[in-house]
Structure formats: C-alpha cells, structure tokens
Amino acid sequence: MADENNVLLRVENLVMHFPIYRGVIGRQVGAVHAVDGVSFTVKRGETLGLVGESGCGKTTTGRTILRLYKPTAGNIVFDGVDLVKLKGEEMRQMRRKLQMIFQDPYASLNPRMTISDIIGEPLIVYNVANAKEIQERVEHLLEIVKLNPAFANRYPHEFSGGQRQRIGVARALALQPSFIVCDEPISALDVSIQAQVINLLEDLQKQFNLTYLFIAHDLSVVRHISDRVAVMYLGVIAEMASRDEVYKSPLHPYTQALLSAVPIPDPVEDAKRKRTILEGDVPSPVNPPSGCHFRTRCPIAKQICSEQKPEFRELRPDHFVACHFADQFVN
Predict the structure, then answer these.
(1) Does the pLDDT of residue 188 top 90, yes or no?
(2) Distance between CA 29 and CA 251 in Å, rounded?
(3) 38 in Cβ contact with 237 (< 8 Å)
(4) Does 270 share its domain with 208?
(5) Is there a single domain that holds both residue 191 and residue 277?
(6) Tens-digit pLDDT profile for residues 276-327
C-alpha cells in the first residue's frame, strides 16, 4: 500500500473489542466491536485524515495505536517495531516517539498544575533534562506554539480554549516525537480559532517533519490538512485514497453520501447536486450487520452484501475501497 522504506506506521487487521459483562459473577455476554479489522499505512511526514460519523471507532483506533488500549487482535508496526509485542519499559520508552493531542482542551489539562508543570511533566517523567533545562525548554515550546513564555506560571483556567489547545500541542511536542495522533483537536473550538490551530499544526509539521493521524468528522477541515483520507464506518474502513481522489471521485456509497451533505459556496452548483439521504440509524456496534457493515443503509445493497464481507481492494492506483459494486463508479 506504500513504499516500505517510507512507511512510518503500518496497522494490520487491527481489532479492538470491549467486553460486556452481566450478572453478579461478571459473565461476558457480548462485546462492543469498536474497531473491526482496520488496515492502513502512514508515510513519514504525511497527514492521514480519518473521518466518519460519531461512534464509528476513530478515536478508539487512535488510542489503540498508541497502546492506551490493548488491542484484541492485529499488528501495529511503528518504525519497524511491532508495538503489540512490547511490554513494560520497552513500550514506555517507545511512547516518547508517539504522542496525542486530545479533543477537549478543557478536560485534558490538569487544573491544579501550572502551564510550566504541564508542559514540563513529560521531560521529568523521562528524566531527559534538569530543572533549568526544563524551564528553558518550556519557554521555547510556548514560543513555538505562539504563546507568551511569561504565561508559564499561570493555570489553565486563565486561558481561552484556543490557547489551551496550543498548550496541549506544546506538551505533545515536549519529547520531540515523530508521530502525533490529533484526536479532533479543533472540534471544541470556535470557528475563528480553528483555522489558527490548523495552521499551527501545518507549520509544526514542516518545521519538525512530523507525521499526523488526524481524526475528525469535519470533511472540509480534513480536505485542507490531509494528504490522504480514510473513511471509517462502524469499525471498518470503507474507502481510502489521496485527498483529491476521495473528494473528486468517491467510489463507496457511504463516502458519496457524506460528501453530498457538505455545503459548497456556489448556490448554482449546489442546486445541481444530487444529495444521497441515508435511511435508518447506524447499527449498534454490539451486534454489527453480517457481511458489509454499511448494507443496512446502502442504496445499492444486494443479497451478496449480507452474505459476504467485501474485500478492501485497490480499484485505482492507491485508491482502496471495500464495496462489492464499487466498479460501477470507476470512470
């Protein structure tokens, strides 16, 4: 799926099921199929956008890659090392290269710690600098994310949402990682602030050669920041291709439905567009449909869709889709 030498992260058949227990003795009666066999690669220095409806498993995928959850099955190969096989101190040391920017800037910062303590904590945990060096590093990181270094001794409640998210970005950069999971980093911010944070992330990527997994459900933002886009539905990837390919010629009915709902600024062109209205609700991840997960809402579903899981196949160069009938959309 990508040049082997240029691949930083390779996820192979990743599965993350959360068991459901009932009764006094805690007997397992089922499982939430949060991630149900996901495979993709992320190249060095690129941004892979992961999009989909709320509850489709995007955040769980990101957290499982960082081993915040222990995967049920699959492999997570980062820079040639399978993270699934690492334990204890080995995994702890590997986490220096893997960081996360959390969705909620109000909940992800400890209100009892100063900004200096929050950003400097990773440096203390990994014992990579003395007190003076940590202070200098914190001030430098604040400058990098365009905050005044004099703010270092303030507390999170003294900052706006956009400023708090910049502090979260500075914390993620403290250990000079090579890969960052951005878990909807702008969804809790005002629209006027969102562009500033996106531009900051892009500038930092160029400056430090960072690699991003950018999780979001705002298709316009993903189109702006991503090099490639993976569309997720109910724990599986429905389609993955370059940004322009996905937006100009989507091959999966779900991707087509998502894009048909995105408003465009030209009213004449907008009036010409055919919108795809998906009927029904997203099935429960506790009991996903047989065969293709999307078949219960798909406008072109047939008998085979309920009997056979579609193969995630390459229909165009670097354009992968999991649909039995995607060939009809290939020009």
Answers:
(1) no
(2) 37
(3) yes
(4) no
(5) no
(6) 878 888 899 999 999 999 999 998 999 999 999 999 999 999 999 999 999 8
In Å, the largest CA–CA distance within the chain is 67
- Joined tokens for residue 126: 């990994």
Residue 272 is assigned to a structural domain of this protein: yes
Residues 6+ apart with CB under 8 A from 98: 65, 66, 78, 177, 179, 180, 181
**Within this chain, do residues 27 and 169 fall inside the same structural domain, yes or no?**
yes
Choosing from 226, 245, 268, the residue where a domain stops is 226
For residue 185, give both structure tokens: 């980093």
pLDDT of 2 higher than 90: no
Poorest-pLDDT segment among 22-26, 92-96, 293-297: 22-26
SS3 assignment, position 287: coil
Cα–Cα dist 248/150, whole Å: 47
DSSP string, 68-137: SS--SEEEEEETTEEGGG--HHHHHHHGGGEEEE-S-TTTSS-TTS-HHHHHHHHHHHTT-S-HHHHHHH
Average pLDDT along the chain: 91
Say how far apart CA 74 and CA 82 lie, in whole Å. 10
Count Cβ atoms within 10 A of the Cβ of residue 319 and give its class: 0-12 exposed, 13-18 middle, 19 or more buried: buried
Q: Which residues, including other chains, have CB under 8 Å from residue 206's CB and lie 6 or more apart?
A: none
* Residues above pLDDT 70, as percent of the chain: 99
* Domain of residue 177, residue span: 4-226
The reported pLDDT for the residue numbered 1 is 46
Q: What residues have CB less than 8 Å from 186, skipping those under 6 apart?
A: 165, 193, 194, 197, 198, 216, 218, 221
- Cβ 119 vs Cβ 172: under 8 Å: no
Q: What is the DSSP string of 238-255?
A: EEEEEHHHHHHS--SHHH
- pLDDT band (50, 70, 90) for residue 25: confident
